[in-house]
Design goal:
six-stranded mixed β-sheet; binds asparagine; alpha/beta; globular; about 25% helix; about 160 residues; 4 helices
């Protein structure tokens, strides 16, 4: 199976900068490369298109993501995105894309600090794309992959939960 991965930053990718004394979104794919190295039956095409905390996203950043999806020849796309505004980006592209399976994912804890959550969220997106699912826009977080608008970030528990 072939999967295009569009990396747009967020906590998933963050690393500690000891000089500045803070976590930053790097412009590389080190976090992702670490995960995909252990997936031998999937061919990944990874593109780093935006490197930001999603709270800093502009309309232009969302247009960049949309254009990448529209120009991609791949049917299967995973988008690494910050969790704070993944709902806004998925809603923005929702009516503009057809004929593709797109799974957004991210993490609450950086891969550089604890690999478990980021690896699980990303891996379940791969497993989901490998199943006979319908085209659409989905979100993969915390043990669940569903249609994107059905999974919401509950800030009181620091986790994504399925909407009732
Ligand atoms: N967990 C995260 O990704 C939160 C981060 N502020 C972001 O939206 O990029």
């Amino acid at each position: 199976m072939k999967i295009t991965v569009l990396n747009t930053g967020g906590t998933f990718n963050k690393r500690y900068n000891p000089i500045k004394g803070q976590l930053e979104v790097p412009t590389d794919n080190i976090a992702l490369d670490k995960i995909v190295k252990s997936c031998h039956n999937v061919q990944f095409d990874i593109k780093n298109i935006v490197s930001k905390d999603s709270l800093d996203f502009t309309q232009e950043d969302r247009e960049t993501i949309l254009k990448e999806i529209q120009n991609s020849t791949s049917e299967n796309i995973i988008i690494i995105h910050g969790t704070d505004t993944v709902d806004l980006t998925s809603k923005f592209i929702e009516d503009k894309i057809q004929g593709k399976k797109i799974v957004f994912t991210g993490a609450m804890v950086p891969m550089s600090i604890d690999e478990v959550e980021a690896t699980m969220n990303f891996s379940q997106a791969i497993g989901f794309l490998n199943a006979p699912i319908e085209n659409g826009i989905y979100l993969s977080m915390h043990g669940v992959v569903v249609e994107h608008s059905k999974l919401v970030k509950d800030r009181s528990v620091g986790q994504f939960l399925v909407k009732n």
